[in-house]
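User: Quick sanity check before I run a bigger batch. Here is a single chain. Can you write out its predicted 3D structure?
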Amino acid sequence: MIKAFMTRFPEFTESMEDGDKELVMATLKAAEAELNPRIWGTLFEEGVLYLAADKLMRSRLGEALRDPDEPAAQSVYAIEFERLARIASMGARVL
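Assistant: Done. Predicted structure follows.
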């Protein structure tokens, strides 16, 4: 999934240093653990990628991407993740 992440979000790879690939992998793993693939269905990988991107926005890798005037502002990744979460949670589900 790291290859998909780096392809989708090259802005995080531009300033990578030693050890940052491990940070991205750990963040992807943490995001995977937070989402239920049975609920997310076909949107699972997309949800994981956007959740991880939002988490990385708050790390050193996202420092250059944050608005210095509003450092606590919601990221575009969080906004898209929330949109995906609404889609994933629509309708009746049998688990």
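The two ends are 25 Å apart (CA to CA).

User: Great, the batch can go ahead then.
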